[in-house]
Every structure is written in C-alpha cells, then in structure tokens.
UniProtKB/TrEMBL annotation:
GO terms for molecular function: DNA binding; DNA-binding transcription factor activity. This is HTH-type transcriptional regulator TtuA. Gene3D superfamilies: 3.40.190.290, Winged helix-like DNA-binding domain superfamily/Winged helix DNA-binding domain. Residues 1-62 form the HTH lysR-type domain. Belongs to the LysR transcriptional regulatory family. It comes from the Bacteria. Transcriptional regulator of the ttuABCDE tartrate utilization operon.
Length: 298
C-alpha cells in the first residue's frame, strides 16, 4: 500500500464497512461526513479502484474492498498495539501475532510453543486461524495473517515456503487392538480392519492417495469423515483404525490410543512456514517465528 495512505484513511474505510454508514462512521471517528468522504476518496485513489458501493440506503464494500478488509483490520490492530507497547521494553513489550495454522498443528503442537513463548513475552497476544491448507494459504496471500503453518504444495509465486519438519503418516488404534502389539506395521496389514479416513477434499488425503498410488496401494476405507479429530473419536470408540499425520495424534500417554509407524512405503507430509514474498513481519511475529523454528527443529 502506498506511503501516501494514512492511518486515518484506513480507519475511515473500516469504520464505514463495519457500521455500514457514512454518518455513523463519521460520528464514531469524531469527524465531519465531508472529511470522512475525502479520506475514503483519497484511499481509493491510492488503491486505484473503488472500495465502497454507495446507494441512498446502504453502503457496502466492493469485491476489492471486501478483500482488503482483513488486511486493513490487522494493520490497524498492530498499529494500535504498537502504540500501547512503545513505552515497554524487553520481555514486557506487547504486540499481536496473527497466524493461520493447520488444525492438526494448532491442536497438539502450537499450544506448547505458545506457552513457552508467553513465559518470555507475557503481553503478546495471538490471533490463530485454524484453517485447512487451502484456506490457510489464502489467508496468508490476502494479508489477513502475517504467516502460516502449512503443508508444502503451494505454487503461488507470491508466497514462500520454509521447511520446518517432516510429519509422517502413522496408524492410530486402540491399545487393545491386535495391531497394537506390533512395533510397526505395513500397509497390507491394515486391510482386514475397518479403516477410517478423511474425505477426498482434504489435503492430507490427496497427498496420501498420490503417494500410495506410486506403490500400487489403494486404501479401502469403511468410514470417511471430514475432520481428523472425528476419525480419532471413532477409533477411540472401537469402530476401526485410522491413518493420519503423527502431529494429529494424541501424546503417548493417552489412556486408550496408540500410534505405530507404517512402512513400505513410509509416507510423510512436509510442514513449513508460508509467508508473503518480500513481506515483513511485526517484531512480535518475528520473535515468535524464531522460537517456533527453534522448538520445531529441536
């Protein structure tokens, strides 16, 4: 966005969008309606396209305006957070980290890193969008979040991918299941049992099916679900076994479930950090990303 764009221009735009009225937005921002209109016009000139559709009864964002709303909201929140935090130094400094994260990583892995980070920086807040892979990439590309934790596979030239770790697919079963006695299993050993998989629309399923096809292996599923957490619920209920990324599985001290490596072939997904090419992170996000990479690589 051009350096000629001022914070008040952004506040004017967001105010009109959220309040759906020039009058109400002008009152909320303590400025006249003509002054508010001038700021909107200035912002539209900077962008080079209309951002609002005006009628006698209603105001709504254009398609481009709708696309800009999450980015503008994040920019203003970071600016306001920086103002409050500027008097603080070192560990006491505040801030906001906005990230998009795969639900599997958000549920089991991310809380551990955030807990450790908050011990050093207790005043830094987090907004976490736990989104499927495609939606997470879209959130990064639009600027709705500062970076994402995702699986490799993006071909968007405006995004970069930094590898963090390999996340192997494993077997999840109850502790009283016959396969639980094995140290590891082969794919063929899954066939006699009811298999629980995620839907074909899932990035995990697409990756898994493609890798198995190279070895002429096809999963014969009995239950198909939308979310990995649902598959674990079915496994825990004794309805079958599941194949899912290790990161999506409970810790080893789970009272009912175990995980086992699956070999011949071993299949994994690559987890990494997705960022906008040439983009910059807030100081809070930079610090968190450093810790994230350190913990993940440990």
């Amino acid at each position: 966005m051009s350096i000629n764009c001022e914070i008040l221009d952004l506040r004017a735009f967001l105010g009109v969008v959220e309040l759906e009225s020039f009058n109400r937005a002008a009152d909320a921002l303590h400025m006249s309606q003509p002054a508010l209109s001038r700021r909107i016009q200035k912002l539209e000139q900077v962008i080079g396209a209309p951002l609002l559709e005006r009628t006698t009864r209603h105001v709504s964002p254009t398609a481009l305006g709708t696309e800009l709303v999450p980015l503008v909201r994040r920019m203003l929140e970071e600016f306001d957070g920086s103002l409050f935090a500027v008097r603080d130094v070192g560990p006491n400094r505040g801030g906001l980290v906005t990230i998009a994260c795969l639900p599997t990583a958000a549920f089991y892995f991310l809380p551990t890193v955030i807990r450790q980070f908050n011990e050093d920086y207790p005043n830094i807040r987090f907004r976490i969008l736990d989104l499927p892979a495609t939606d997470g990439l879209r959130a990064v590309a639009s600027g709705e979040v500062e970076f994402g934790i995702n699986i490799m596979g993006t071909s968007d030239p405006d995004l970069t991918f930094e590898r963090l770790a390999e996340d192997p697919f494993v077997l999840a079963a109850r502790k009283d299941h016959p396969l639980a006695t094995k140290q590891w299993v082969e794919w063929a050993e899954l066939e006699p049992y009811h298999l629980i998989t995620v839907h074909r629309s899932s990035g995990n399923r697409t990756l898994l099916d493609a890798a198995l096809a190279k070895s002429n292996i096809k999963l014969r599923w009995f239950y198909e679900v939308t979310h990995l957490s649902t598959s674990l619920g079915l496994v825990e209920a004794g309805l079958g076994i599941s194949v899912l990324p290790r990161m999506a599985t409970p810790r080893e001290d789970h009272p009912f479930l175990i995980t086992r490596p699956i070999r011949n072939p071993e299949i994994s997904r690559t987890i990494g950090v997705v960022r906008r090419r040439g983009g910059t992170l807030s100081p809070a996000a930079e610090r968190f990303l450093e810790m994230l990479i350190g913990v993940w690589g440990a």
